[in-house]
Write a structure and sequence with these properties.
Layout: E1 10-13, H1 28-31, H2 36-53, H3 59-67, E2 70-73, E3 87-93, E4 96-103, E5 106-114, H4 117-121, H5 125-130, H6 132-138, E6 154-156, E7 161-164, E8 168-169, E9 171-175, E10 178-183, E11 186-189, H7 196-204, E12 214-221, E13 225-232, H8 233-242, E14 246-255, E15 258-267, E16 272-281, E17 291-301, H9 302-318
Helix pairs in contact: 6-8
Length: about 325
């Protein structure tokens, strides 16, 4: 089923009776056709509006100001007019979301709020980071499907090798390039022990069928602490796909025991990034029991990612990974 993202304008009519005790604004029939990021926003709006109804007097205005949210059209008391039979539109404006409820095809209430992940999920930074492992594991049942491949903008590297790339972050080497070999007019993802850099990029872009590699994670936690756990590459790829994360890959160092890669998994809806330093051991292509060692810094705001990436690469050059 095609999922509808929040990045484009979406007009929805919900046709189920309202609950008088609690606002339920988005029915399951709507949730089934939108992507996960949109569902997260829907959950936030319902939770936030129900929370406003429990506040009294000027404390509502104070909370709205503290959270940097506002009603561009209408006023907060108009939420009492809402029900799940009204058409509603979603749109994204730079770093803000805007949701409008319509009557006679005209917005009567427009709610604007920042694309701030901790606000939207209703958790502190520490709670969010502590919950990442469970979020990754919970994606295990998700049916992951790699993005369809097309030959548009594909470029030849030599007689057989080709590259497809459309975006990069900070530096050109940190990009979403995928690599292919052409045989009998057909393109196949590169996965060869003699071309480990390209093979590693394809592996983390989800182009390779063997995704049972174990990833040993050392994850930083808010407050200068760390936690360690093991997942599979398949679980990581499913988590990224489910949450709409875009992967950018760069090789920082080729070493005798393998390669050191930097990976950024970016959510451009909520403006956060996961930064991974990954050691892929020598011979990983032909050894599915290889362990990928990962240092993970999660939920970095997009405006901080360039500085942290620079700091990470400088640290990698100063000391040998263990």
């Amino acid at each position: 089923m095609r999922r509808i993202g929040i990045m484009s304008l979406l007009l929805i009519t919900v046709c189920v009776s309202s609950n008088a005790q609690r606002l339920h604004l988005f029915n399951d029939s709507i949730r089934n056709i939108v992507d996960r990021n949109t569902i997260v926003v829907m959950d936030f709006v319902e939770r936030y509006f129900n929370g406003l109804r429990s506040l009294k007097g000027t404390s509502v205005e104070t909370k709205l100001a503290d959270d940097k949210v506002y009603f561009r059209k209408g006023k907060w008391t108009d939420i009492y007019q809402l029900n799940d039979t009204l058409p509603v539109s979603f749109s994204k404006m730079e770093r803000y979301f805007e949701i409008s409820w319509l009557k006679s095809d005209v917005p009567f209430l427009t709610f604007v709020f920042p694309a701030q992940y901790d606000l939207i999920v209703g958790k502190s930074q520490k709670e969010i980071q502590n919950g990442l492992r469970n979020d990754i594991l919970s994606a295990s049942s998700y049916e992951y499907k790699p993005l369809p491949f097309d030959t548009a903008n594909i470029k030849a590297l030599d007689d057989k090798l080709y590259v497809k790339c459309s975006q990069h972050i900070g530096v050109e080497s940190l990009n979403n390039a995928r690599y292919f070999i052409k045989t009998d007019e057909e393109y196949y993802p590169v996965y060869d022990d003699s071309i480990t850099e390209y093979s590693a990029a394809n592996l983390f872009h989800g182009l390779i069928s063997n995704t049972d590699y174990r990833m040993h994670i050392e994850q930083s936690i808010y407050g200068m602490t760390t936690t360690s756990y093991d997942i599979t590459l398949s679980q990581w790829l499913k988590y990224c796909s489910l949450n709409g994360l875009k992967t950018y890959f760069a090789v920082e160092e080729e070493r005798e025991d393998g390669i050191l890669a930097i990976i950024i998994a970016q959510n451009d809806v909520f403006f956060y990034n996961h930064l991974l330093s990954v050691v892929l051991p020598k011979g990983f292509v032909n050894n599915p029991k290889s362990v990928l060692k990962v240092k993970l810094t999660p939920y970095i705001p997009t405006h901080n990612i360039k500085n942290l990436y620079k700091q990470q690469t400088e640290n990698n050059k100063r000391k040998q990974w263990q």
